[in-house]
């Protein structure tokens, strides 16, 4: 009867409902059961790894972490049918959280061996954990992936050796807490500040008021300006002690989602510290770097600024940023760098003879740049009836693009080996020629030529007359809808790049490669997802070029994306973050950059997840094959 009860329980709970009866019987035959009274700590943060996945039969638990200053941060509540301890079980590593029974609780216990067997042999079972845990794995600051070298290790140690008092801004504007709305607003306007610290008569801080408080609590409510400021001030001030180290201040900002902390010394207000201050401590911030680019007037000045980009990536990694956030910030910085180079070059060579648009391809076009990427660019200029000036027009734009290419090289952007660059006359052409290029792409029968042309469909305008780019994009959308053979040829190139997973769910490596035993995360992980979403975007006339934007745009336009949107997004974030982390570690150790990751360097959870990414790619490729044969 006990076995039948266990089988019936699991048969109706995710993800066990995906398992067949024989598998459920095997689980039931080996499952154990434990009882935990209310208040009992089942798993301890930083304690030994969990040997079992626990599934709650009755009762409930809370999952939490304890911060460096011994504050409890609640993560989740779980009840009947929910499970906990998964990350610790599959990684074999210490427990990342504490799990406490909030009422008398009974759990079924499934061994690590059984869980690993289920993950290896039951794709639907494994896919459940990909959906359930990957988002937390990417978004939480305590996640396993970031514990290796980010906030608590590697890189510049200034956050761990500099005290808050050393960094705090000493000039801080204060005012008595019993002044009026009007008086407070006048002080903030005169001092040109966005926040005002309110104090008692003895100088102790009791509250803070900000521009937002005035907007949300005074102006929008039509309140009398003669009311006391204490009525709207924020009383729960988050403070940092002057002797605290800066990393403790950073953790408080992350935890409470704030951008500034008051600094006190034995209860006495001594200053304020901001998120910007902490980023500046380790080098620079994206905002300050962008401003520095704008202030440069020479290429030599830009060379110095360009070297700071790596620090930005390190800081973003240390703050637990998602891969898409990192690549977009880096893309924005690189775009600003390019725009400034174009402005300087225009100034040096004189006004261009025709309107033009500078466009980028590949990862640059998709806003998915990480470190310094190869130059993939082109010039698209307006058509001209002045045939007698055609030679001069070409001479100007080739000289212009060559100068820009040289400047980009000096700033650390290597030339593209295949020469897909504006400095190549083939890719420095008027709108009419570019339309013909894409017409030829879409009528080409060779899958190899089609494969080489897909990079151009990721083009994105950067500078100049953006209407030229829009005209080209509209032409492509209006033309490609009838090109079934072209779309099938793209699909054929996609399905040739199969994931490196064998019959027994093991990694398959190229034995002849000089990178034997390693995974090409770009070729086998990133490119297939990029290629799949590009195909669907071209098919549905989507103008977006970044992979994440394409997923969001296609959610309601393509049935496969609608079904697998979340999995595709999480999978792409995961493999991109693996690549960024891998290359950042190479830079830190002075190695040449590559995309080859040794699976032995991944923990068990990362290995499981990358296999699930490959499984997802394979599944969608199978749908594409089926669609081609329909």
Q: Topology, pairings included?
A:
Blueprint: H1 2-11, H2 21-30, E1 32-36, E2 41-43, E3 52-58, E4 60-66, E5 72-79, E6 83-84, H3 86-91, E7 98-101, E8 105-111, H4 112-121, H5 123-139, H6 158-161, H7 164-167, E9 174-176, H8 181-191, E10 195-199, E11 205-210, H9 211-219, E12 239-241, H10 246-256, E13 260-265, E14 268-274, H11 275-281, H12 286-295, H13 299-306, H14 309-318, H15 323-349, E15 356-360, H16 362-365, E16 377-381, H17 390-410, E17 428-430, H18 431-442, H19 447-453, E18 460-464, H20 466-480, H21 484-496, E19 519-520, H22 521-540, H23 547-554, H24 559-588, E20 596-597, H25 604-629
Parallel strand pairs: 9-10, 12-13, 16-17
Antiparallel strand pairs: 1-8, 2-7, 3-6, 3-8, 4-5, 4-7, 10-11, 13-14, 15-16, 15-18, 19-20
Helix pairs in contact: 1-2, 5-24, 5-25, 12-15, 14-24, 15-17, 18-20, 19-21, 21-22, 21-25, 22-23, 22-24, 22-25, 23-24, 24-25
Provide the descriptors you would attach to this structure in a database record.
four-stranded antiparallel beta sheet; CBS-domain; Beta Polymerase, domain 2; Jelly Rolls
Account of the 3D structure:
- This protein is an alpha+beta fold and 630 residues long.
- It has a 4-stranded antiparallel beta sheet. A 4-stranded antiparallel beta sheet has the order 2-7-4-5, with no helix packed on it.
- The model is unreliable at 134-157 (pLDDT under 50).
